[in-house]
């Protein structure tokens, strides 16, 4: 069951003029969170906006005794709520409800690849730690518009993750989209190698990654970022169209907050999602 608490801001690390990481004291939520789950947050004492907003659990925080003490959020300024989160100070409070949603699955495999676009990096810190604890060799394909959109690279590398970077303007890593090195690596990977692919980022990017995975007969899970009003399934604001497993010619609408945000890439009706963007 999700926990509803007032979480104290431990720190606000402003990574740039638009990105920041907020660390929260919230052991009750952090201790039961699984990779890919999210929380609904709102600044304490504020009446606008009325509804909370969803954010992936970024890092699981631990104290000096390695006891779980809280979690962090990766935030990008794109509107009223994210602007407010960017300006938080130590000691401020956030109303947090979570953890919510379905997590990533981590089946036994000989390799795992995570594909992140921009702030789509958010669900992969906890997943990377889980994969490393299970001894799964992991690669992060991480892309952004420019070097100013790429963060925490050294954090993943210290964890033992192989990181391949791309930027659309060539200011860091390989010039181009993140799907370029992904396609190249898929083409050279021996077909007998067991591989699980995960993706989070812009819808167009995730669709391309899912298509590449299907072309190479590789399983893939994607973490969607739909608008959510409640996070509990009551408002139906986050529905996505999903293929019926019993009849591939039919589909149904599912709520991302309950049945997701993690879905199998071949389960989603991507054309329907593209029209909604």
Main attributes?
277 residues; alpha/beta; Elongation Factor Tu (Ef-tu), domain 3; Rossmann fold; seven-stranded antiparallel β-sheet; 8 helices; 22% helix
Offer a concise description of the structure.
With 277 residues, the chain is an alpha/beta fold. It has helices at residues 27-30, 80-86, 124-133, 153-158, 179-188, 203-215, 256-259, 270-276; strands spanning 3-14, 19-25, 38-43, 53-56, 60-62, 68-76, 93-100, 112-117, 138-144, 162-167, 174-175, 196-200, 220-223, 239-244, 247-255, 262-264. The strands form 3 sheets. The chain has a 7-stranded antiparallel sheet.
Layout of SSEs?
Layout: E1 3-14, E2 19-25, H1 27-30, E3 38-43, E4 53-56, E5 60-62, E6 68-76, H2 80-86, E7 93-100, E8 112-117, H3 124-133, E9 138-144, H4 153-158, E10 162-167, E11 174-175, H5 179-188, E12 196-200, H6 203-215, E13 220-223, E14 239-244, E15 247-255, H7 256-259, E16 262-264, H8 270-276
Parallel strand pairs: 8-9, 8-12, 9-10, 10-11, 12-13
Antiparallel strand pairs: 1-2, 1-7, 2-6, 3-4, 3-7, 5-6, 13-16, 14-15
Describe the 3D structure:
The longest helix has 13 residues. The chain contains eight helices and 16 strands. 42% of the residues are buried. Strands 4-3-7-1-2-6-5 form a seven-stranded antiparallel beta sheet. The protein has a seven-stranded mixed beta sheet with strand order 11-10-9-8-12-13-16, with helices on both faces. The protein folds into two domains: 98 residues, Translation factors (Elongation Factor Tu (Ef-tu), domain 3), CATH 2.40.30; 114 residues, Rossmann fold, CATH 3.40.50. The radius of gyration is 18 Å and the shape is globular. It has 277 residues and is an alpha/beta fold.
